[in-house]
Each structure stands twice: as C-alpha cells, then as structure tokens.
Specification:
The chain has about 290 residues and is an all-alpha fold. The protein contains 12 helices and no strands. Helix 4 runs parallel beside helix 6 and helix 4 packs parallel to helix 11.
C-alpha cells in the first residue's frame, strides 16, 4: 500500500496517499444505504482504484497480450514430484494450519449468517475437509495454488452483505472458466498491488471486528486473552526475524520457526489445550475436597 515492491524498496508517499483514498472509498461505499452499492462495494472500489491508479501514472502500463485464446492446464508444469523431508514436515504443519483455519472460517461464517446449529456444523467440517483435500491434490497435479478456506471469507460476507450461496457458486464457475482463457488471467494479474491490498484492508478490518465479537462470546475471557497474547507475540515476533537467521537451524525447525503464522497458530492451540486441562484438573481437585 506504500509502493514497496520488488522494484522499489522505499516508501512512495504518492502511492500511500492513493491507497489511503481507496481504503476510505471502500469503507464509504460498504456503508451506503443503497443496497446494490454496499453489496458491490469491493468490486466498485477495485474498478475505480484500478482506473485511477492507471490514469495517475503510478503503475506500469498494461502491455497487450499476445498468446493463445484458450489453453488447458499442464500436468506437473514445474517438474515431476520429488520427496523432500523439509517440505514433508512443512506440509504437516501447513495441513494443521489449514484445518484450524477451516474450522475457524466455518464457525465465524456461521455466526455472520446467524447459524449456530452444531450438528449442521459438524457436517460442514467433514464436507469441507474432503473438499479441501481434493482441491490441494488437483492444485499439485496442475501446478496451481489450491484454494483454501480462510476467516477472511466471513469479513467479505460482512462487508458485502451477500449471504446467499448461489452468487458464490456462480462466481466460482466464472473463475474456473476464466482460468482456461490466458488473456483474462493476464488482465487480472495486472491488477496493481496497492489497489488490491487497499480493498482487502477493509475486508480484514471487518474480520478483526468479527474476531473481537467472537472474543466477547467466550466465558473465560482472561484465559482466552492470555492465549491470544502469547501466540500473537510469538507469531508476529518471529515474522520480524530475517529468514537467513535460520540458515543453521535443522530443516524441521526451520519450516516452523520461519513461518510466524504456523508458529503462532500452533502455540495458540497448545496453550489453549494446556490451560483447559489445568482448569479441569483444578476443578476436579476442588470437587474432591
């Protein structure tokens, strides 16, 4: 959002001011009383930001596309699969993280939609788990990024106010169809990063608001705050450590310590389970007395 990228290592104030304007515009449109404006505030902000960004000369000019009109995905485009112990360990932690995100995403989305049926939730967990596994397998085979559930989906629903399932199904088929047309994907890839991050800033701001609302539902708030504080400090603190600092660390630990998101999530789960076990033990001891 401040113009820092692969070709620029310093802050660009003009890009930063522009990004602030896009964030303000997105917040403004998402809170409009006219329903269609608030529902399509993300798309409207993306389109307006992209056009204004190009007209202001802050980004590169999109070059014409010279390629095939239609193309099928390649099998193992980056080479045949090989076994790597470090990647295998990383995959275990990533899978653990994705399962945690999946459960959190379903739970938070259910609250946004005001659905709290636990039996229905368990069915969603199982179906989502199988679907996520199939997505990852297809992503690996076709050298693509497998789609994963994130809690940001709840923030997107809260921002747009679109709660029906049909629009998401239709949009998914549109995305799938466009992936076979390289020219369309070439156009989407040209979206300026400051515009994309500025719009998603609003989505994640709403997601954090949902997280605070979720915290208020907890009965033992002190224990929950402790879990959040320790895991947040550990995860964010690890992100500030340069990657080369872990060069002498074994591959198994390197994949864990070099990823603040995985480390923070793992610590959160471990501390949460440990404190719950301690509370149960204390209650048993008090009852026995």
């Amino acid at each position: 959002m401040f113009g820092i990228g692969s070709e620029n290592s310093k802050i660009d104030l003009s890009v930063g001011i522009f990004s602030l304007g896009i964030v303000t515009l997105t917040f403004y449109l998402s809170r409009q009383r006219i329903k269609w404006i608030s529902q399509y505030s993300i798309l409207l902000s993306l389109a307006a930001g992209w056009i204004l960004f190009s007209l202001s000369g802050l980004g590169k000019t999109i070059q014409p596309y010279h390629g095939p009109l239609f193309a099928m995905p390649d099998f193992f485009a980056f080479g045949q699969p090989i076994f790597d112990s470090g990647l295998a360990i990383t995959a275990v932690f990533i899978t653990f993280l994705l399962i945690t995100n999946m459960i959190a995403s379903i739970r938070i989305t259910g609250q946004v939609l005001e659905k709290t049926d636990k039996a229905e939730g368990h069915l969603h967990y199982r179906a989502s788990g199988f679907t996520a596994g199939i997505n990852q397998l297809l992503g690996g085979i076709f050298s693509a990024i497998g789609s994963v559930p994130i809690s940001g989906a709840a923030g997107f629903i809260a921002t747009t106010g679109i709660t029906r399932l049909l629009p998401f199904i239709i949009s998914s088929f549109i995305v799938m169809g466009s992936s076979f047309i390289p020219g369309v994907m070439y156009l989407f890839a040209a979206l300026p990063a400051p515009v994309g991050y500025s719009v998603t800033f609003v989505i994640f701001a709403n997601m954090i608001a949902i997280a605070f609302a979720e915290l208020e539902r907890e009965q033992d708030k002190n224990r929950t705050r402790t879990v959040i504080g320790v895991s947040l400090m550990a995860g964010v603190g690890t992100m500030s450590i340069p990657g080369e600092a872990f060069s002498d660390v074994p591959a198994a630990l390197n994949s864990l310590l070099n990823n603040g998101l995985i480390l923070g999530t793992l610590i959160a789960v471990l501390i949460d389970q440990f404190t719950l076990a301690k509370e149960k033990q204390t209650k048993k001891e008090n009852l026995s007395k």
